[in-house]
Amino acid sequence: MGAASAILLVLITILLPPLGVYAVAGCGADLLVNICLTILGYFPGHLHAFYLEYVYYDRREQAKHGIPSSSPAPGVYSDRVQSGGYGYGTIVQPTH
């Protein structure tokens, strides 16, 4: 399920970068930055969106293995992306 959702997210981001950012980061500063970058040029919007998705999935994998993130990723404003989706709301932490 994880790989299928990642592939779907990449396909959505290729078509419309702000939609991919919204799916990962929600409605916030990252979405606003991505909309502005996409308006200024389609390529910068893609770079930003794929960077956010990379940070999100990288932090998610680190959290699964119990490795805490050492420092916040530069240029990422969403706590959801910084934590890889863990520790946000009522998400149950994995136990190993």
UniProtKB/TrEMBL annotation:
Residues 1-23 form the signal peptide. GO terms for cellular component: membrane. Residues 64-96 are annotated as: Disordered. InterPro entries: PMP3. Keywords: Membrane, Signal, Transmembrane, Transmembrane helix. It comes from the Eukaryota. It is found in: Membrane. Belongs to the UPF0057 (PMP3) family. This is Plasma membrane proteolipid 3. It comes from Cercophora newfieldiana.
